[in-house]
Design the sequence.
């Protein structure tokens, strides 16, 4: 029996992969010298049944190899992409070490037109809903107990200059190549907290002005 879980996964040998995982020596997220995992191998070769098994065994759909590529970056299969995104909530906005999303990498190589069209449709639908095309978790807790969704709820108007400005600022944070993901997360939290504070101050100012106006009318 092969003891190389990455080759066994690429060859779609589920029994071998299962046996290797059951030994405890390997997991669905075991990395080789290049950071390549069974998750990447299954996605790359379109072995969807095996990919689902690996996910059930704790496989991370957003795991990155040494180049920053996720399983989605490795796939050229529309069915595999849908399995990762629609069924298992893979983040199609993750960027690799070259700063590319899976869609941008495909466009660069001009491969898999059906998959390109699918990923483009996801991006279009996200923009049409007025939400940010960024990997922000709307339920991400902030130190002050607020939630990012409170901030996002104020950014629904597509023609809003403020929306465009804030999207650009968030995009700048997310595309920084010289900082770690944890540093990006911290910068995002600080950005959202500052924006929330500004919004609250703005609302309070409007309420104070309204109260003052009503008071003058009563006099």
Sequence:
């Amino acid at each position: 029996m092969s003891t190389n879980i990455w080759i066994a996964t690429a060859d779609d040998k589920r029994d071998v992969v299962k046996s290797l995982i059951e030994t405890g020596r390997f997991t669905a997220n075991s990395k080789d010298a290049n950071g390549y995992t069974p998750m990447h191998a299954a996605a790359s070769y379109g072995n969807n049944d095996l990919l689902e098994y690996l996910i059930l065994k704790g496989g991370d759909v957003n795991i990155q190899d040494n180049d920053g590529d996720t399983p989605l970056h490795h796939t050229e299969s529309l069915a595999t992409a849908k399995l990762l995104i629609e069924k298992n909530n893979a983040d199609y906005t993750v960027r690799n070490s070259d700063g590319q999303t899976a869609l941008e990498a495909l466009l660069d190589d001009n491969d898999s037109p059906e998959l390109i069209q699918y990923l483009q449709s996801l991006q279009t639908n996200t923009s049409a809903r007025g939400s940010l095309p960024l990997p922000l978790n709307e339920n991400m807790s902030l130190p002050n107990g607020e939630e990012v969704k409170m901030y996002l709820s104020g950014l629904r108007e597509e023609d809003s200059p403020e929306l465009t400005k804030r999207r650009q600022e968030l995009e700048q944070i997310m595309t920084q190549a010289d900082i770690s993901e944890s540093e990006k997360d911290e910068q995002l939290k600080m950005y959202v907290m500052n924006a929330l504070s500004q919004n609250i101050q703005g609302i309070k100012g409007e309420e104070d002005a309204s109260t003052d106006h009503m008071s003058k009318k009563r006099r």
Q: What stands out?
A: The chain has two domains: 1-128, 133-219. The chain is about 60% helix and 0% strand. The radius of gyration is 22 Å. The longest helix spans residues 181-218.
